[in-house]
Write a structure and sequence with these properties.
The complex is a heterodimer. By secondary structure, chain A is of the alpha/beta class. Chain A has a single domain (4-231), classed as P-loop containing nucleotide triphosphate hydrolases (Rossmann fold, 3-Layer(aba) Sandwich). Chain A is 36% helix and 24% strand. Chain A has helices at residues 52-59, 83-89, 106-116, 121-134, 150-162, 180-196, 231-234, 238-243, 250-260, 272-283, and strands at residues 4-16, 22-36, 41-45, 67-72, 75-76, 90-93, 168-172, 200-205, 216-221, 224-229. Chain A has a six-stranded mixed beta sheet, sandwiched between helices. In chain A, strands 2-1-4-5 form a four-stranded antiparallel beta sheet. In chain A, helix 3 (106-116) packs across helix 4 (121-134) and helix 4 crosses helix 5 (150-162). The longest helix of chain A has 17 residues, at 180-196. Chain B contains eleven helices and two strands, in the order H-H-H-H-H-E-E-H-H-H-H-H-H. Chain B is flat, with a radius of gyration of 24 Å. The chains are: A alpha/beta, B mainly alpha. Chains A and B meet through helix 2, helix 3 and helix 4 of A and helix 8 and helix 10 of B.
Chain lengths: 284, 270
């Protein structure tokens, strides 16, 4: 059984007029079926309005399906009695770091989740210390979150989820408001958590370059899954991605255009190193 | 604009007063305020003054930090003093001009009231200066837990208070940003006249309120995602526990209260 099972998921947003009756609907998700294996690093790619954030909020039971089912660890999000367990297993980090912190001190911020699920006091202390170490923020334990950089704030937010001992962390565009430095910090932390702690990562993003190290890339457009494969295969569909309003990594783009001109470069080049290697091979 | 909010003006320290359980300090402040109103003699206020000064000395908070809170209430003190000077007509007549008569009783009464208000303010600011806002809300939550019996949402209120404190600096920053953006487009926040000035603040407050609502929506989702479901079944990283110093604190407080009551019922003319 996969960790997350999404079956024929539909989600519609309703617009209401002043009298409270429905004046318009917008289908955000149309028949999405996915399953995500435990321990994998999955990136969900799509431009604004593609339904990727809506999908993320379904896995955490923040949204409930209009039709279809979402199951985390075999628990259906429609089952109100299971919601807390689902949220404990599938933690979530949001885009704006300021709007997801409730405490004035880093260590108390991280303790918030464990406190909510009733972890005993001594164990909270252990978990907080542990989570701080996992994201490399131990030195900032007693700081106020207001004084931290964007990347540090997001790492604290990730630690807040890690302290709940989740099996999966869903991140809804965690780097959208960060500078390049902060983005690298956050991504490195995520890959470490995935490799060392075997925590499943579901990274929602619209930055191509954040997805090339993932195990799997899911491309969404207009509420549907349009591509779903390993990064090298997904990014070989250059035309398709462009038509969906998405870019491909620079190296992939260059290889694609050179191929159009007749150079025999292989498909699936993602990084500059791979490009250089393939190009040198070609020159010999 | 939020510079003047004294709540949360914590003066870090390691004194016994700092370490006291916030519940002890909260009820201590309450008892101190009650004692001020029990008093009807100068000697009683003198005792309260002595008590407060000892506490300040122990806390190690510099006196100028404490007296800073008095600036804000200067006008209130002045008005009450003026009223009691001119309205009380006991004692001997001291000065008389036009329709005003000043009696010795009036002067004594004015001094008494002014002293009482000042002690009141200093007493409560000593509590906020020695207690972090987090500990204060924790103290309120646990100390007022008995109100749960009448279904008063104590936990929710404490949570609201701590979130409000957390967002004060963020909203202040945001307000400065909006202010600069509006000034860059020609808004004038230094207009003359009360009404025009208030109207000038509308383009500042509307975006601020809208953004505050957005933040609130985001935050509530983030809290949901982290399994927040009210106070039920919630544990604490830093639970409040009374220590020996708290019992000593209560002992000191109640002896002070007893002394105050003794002075009140003591038959003497001072």
């Amino acid at each position: 059984m996969a960790l997350i099972d999404i079956l024929h998921l539909f989600h519609s947003f309703y617009r209401y007029d002043e009298s409270g009756s429905v004046s318009g609907t917008k289908a955000a998700l149309k028949d999405v079926t996915l399953s995500i294996e435990a321990g994998s690093f999955v990136a969900v790619l799509g431009h604004n309005g593609s339904g990727k954030s809506t999908l993320a909020k379904h896995i955490n039971a923040l949204f409930l399906p209009s039709k279809g089912d979402v199951k985390v660890n075999g628990r259906n999000t429609r089952d109100a009695g299971e919601v807390l367990l689902i949220r404990r297993d599938a933690g979530m980090v949001f885009q704006n770091p300021d709007n997801q912190m409730i405490a004035n001190v880093v260590e108390e911020e991280i303790a918030f989740g464990p406190e909510n699920i009733g972890v005993p006091t001594e164990e909270i202390w252990e978990r907080v210390g542990d989570a701080l170490e996992r994201v490399g923020m131990t030195a900032y334990r007693m700081h106020s979150p207001d004084r931290l950089s964007g990347g540090q704030k997001q790492r604290v937010a990730i630690a807040g989820v890690v302290a709940m001992k989740p099996q999966c962390i869903i991140l809804d565009e965690p780097t959208a408001m960060l500078d390049p430095m902060g983005r690298r910090e956050v991504l490195r932390t995520l890959h470490e958590l995935n490799e060392k702690e075997k925590i499943t990562i579901l990274l929602i993003t619209h930055h191509m370059d954040e997805t090339i190290d993932a195990d799997r890339v899911i491309v969404m457009d207009d509420g549907e899954v349009v591509l779903d494969d390993v990064p090298s295969v997904v990014f070989s569909h250059v035309e398709e991605l462009r038509s969906r309003g998405l870019d491909v990594p620079v190296a992939t783009q260059l290889a694609y255009e050179l191929r159009q001109k007749g150079l025999e470069l292989p498909d699936g080049i993602l990084s500059e190193e791979e490009f250089v290697e393939a190009y040198l091979k070609l020159c010999k | 604009m939020f510079k003047d909010i004294t709540l949360g003006q914590y003066y870090p320290g390691e004194s016994v007063i700092h370490k006291l359980d916030p519940r002890t300090k909260l009820s201590g402040t309450m008892l101190f305020l009650i004692s001020l109103f029990i008093n009807d003699k100068f000697i009683g206020l003198g005792l309260a003054f002595l008590f407060l000064m000892t506490m300040i000395k122990i806390s190690g908070v510099p006196l100028r930090f404490i007296t800073r809170g008095l600036k804000g209430i200067f006008l209130i003190v002045l008005i009450t003093v003026l009223f009691s000077v001119f309205y009380v007509d006991s004692g001997t007549l001291l000065v008389e001009f036009w329709v005003f008569k000043i009696y010795s009783g009036g002067l004594a009464n004015a001094a008494f009231i002014a002293l009482r208000i000042m002690l009141l303010v200093i007493g409560s600011s000593l509590m906020t200066l020695t207690t972090t806002p987090t500990r204060l809300t924790d103290g309120l939550e646990k100390g007022l837990r008995f109100l749960n019996v009448i279904h008063f949402p104590v936990h929710a209120l404490a949570m609201i208070m701590s979130i409000a404190l957390r967002f004060i600096p963020i909203l202040t920053q945001e307000m400065n940003k909006i202010m600069k953006a509006q000034m860059a487009r020609g808004a004038d926040f230094e207009k003359r006249g009360f009404l025009r000035r208030i109207r000038g603040y509308v383009p500042l407050l509307v975006p601020l309120i809208i953004s505050a609502f957005r933040r609130a929506a985001d935050l509530s989702q983030a809290m949901d995602a982290r399994c927040y479901h009210g106070g039920k079944g919630r544990t604490k990283m830093k639970p409040l526990r009374y220590a020996r110093r708290d019992f000593i604190g209560y002992l000191v407080l109640f002896s002070f209260l007893a002394a105050t009551i003794a002075i009140r019922i003591m038959p003497c003319g001072c």
